[in-house]
Amino acid sequence: MFSSAPTISEGEVDFVAPAAGKPCKTWYRVIGDLKARRPLVALHGGPGCSHAYLGAFADLTAAHSIPLVLYDQLGTGNSTHLPEKMGDTGFWTEQLFLDELDNLLKHLGIQDDYDLLGHSWGGMLGSRHASLRPAGLRRLIIASSPADMGLWVEAANRLRTELPPDVQDALDKHEKEGTTESAEYQAAMTAFYARFLCRLDPMPAPVLETMAWIEKDPTVYFTMNGPSEFHITGPLKDWSMLKDAHKIVVPTLLTNGRYDEAQDSTVMPFFASIPHVKWVTFAESSHMPHWEERERYMSIVGSFLLS
Questions:
Q1: Which of 20, 107, 146, 148 suits a disulfide with 152, CB 3.0-4.6 Å?
Q2: 59, 79, 81, 120: which one is catalytic?
Q3: Is 127 one of the annotated active-site residues of the chain?
Q4: Which CATH architecture has domain 8-159+215-306?
Q5: Residue 44 a catalytic site member
Q6: Which string of DSSP letters, residue by residue, matches 232-297?
Q7: pLDDT digit string (tens) for 210-251?
Q8: The whole model's pTM is what?
């Protein structure tokens, strides 16, 4: 255990994205000492959220001296924003974010020895990174992430049928009319998130901060994903690891919640294909068991990273 609070440092690293048309920077925060032991790099979801809701993983730093690296992906949070690239599917690609991750690892000098945790979209990105078999990756955590976006949409629409009829009617009405920015539609989506995103009431402030970034700058989310969880119209609609999950050779921990948008059907292909894998489902959680069952979640992740 730490006898005092771990050190926190923040910085920016230049990231060259030629098609951006301007200099870009990736903002990051390091909690703990990168030289103390192997660091854990956390990839946030969205795409287009921010690092804030993953700050809970500093529990691992406090308990085990595991250094934690958080960062905002290009287009959100404290990193460079590119609203002029709204709709540019040739720019906002999975490869862009893979390159950004590699750039950060090299800047921090940890590319030869690190663990990786990705939540939701971050787990999708992390699984792809791991399938490329980078030499320095030692352990992988895929948290509430689908192995295939087709399976994700199927699961989301099944969960939608569990909502109260009036909420379903509001979703149907405004999607048909193309008025998904209306207050009634947003209220219906809030009801969905309260059941399947984070079941804590009130939601933790870092979770709300993260979600707010998509409203502040929806460029990445709208371009890559589309208008909602139920209708993926961007390039992520064809995203899949079904053919590549077997290429992940590092020990891997899969996690999801009983009420998760990442239902078992979306996670199962990872479990079936990755050679060295463990899967834990959290019975009282939805999409954020690292908040909803925080103590147990951190205990399981900590044991996995230290084993």
A1: 146
A2: 120
A3: no
A4: 3-Layer(aba) Sandwich (3.40)
A5: no
A6: --SGGGG-B-TTTGGG--S-EEEEEETT-SS-HHHHHHHHHH-SSEEEEEETT-SS-HHHHTHHHH
A7: 999 999 999 999 999 988 888 899 999 999 999 999 999 999
A8: 0.96
